[in-house]
Amino acid sequence: MTAQAILVWQQADGFWRWRYRDDEGVDLLSNDSHLTREEAITSASEAYPSVRLVEQDSEYVGLGLARSARRAAVGTAAVAGAAVVTIPVAVALGWRRLRRRLGLRRPS
Questions:
Q1: Closest C-alpha to 55, from 14, 12, 2, 16
Q2: What per-residue confidence (pLDDT) applies to 96?
Q3: Which residues of the chain carry a pLDDT beneath 50?
Q4: How far apart are CA 20 and CA 54, in angstroms?
Q5: Domain check: are 70 and 44 in the same one?
């Protein structure tokens, strides 16, 4: 039998969320945030009446935050690397075009 749980937590903005998880990799986040803990628990219990509830401190407990943070860092590095290459090339091409429009020649 598959182990199942509903995780309930308070977000940084003060609202409450829940998510359904099982040990086969299913991970479903609630589509709404709730004003109170009780509203979140009621919503989760209506959606999954026979699944046990587990409260946690934040959304990130047990969700592989280290892996997510690593992915974010790699994505940021890729964007920064592209910017380091793209910006100087764009500036050089723009400068060249401006010189042509103004009829300026390179000093000899």
A1: 16
A2: 79
A3: 62-67
A4: 10
A5: no
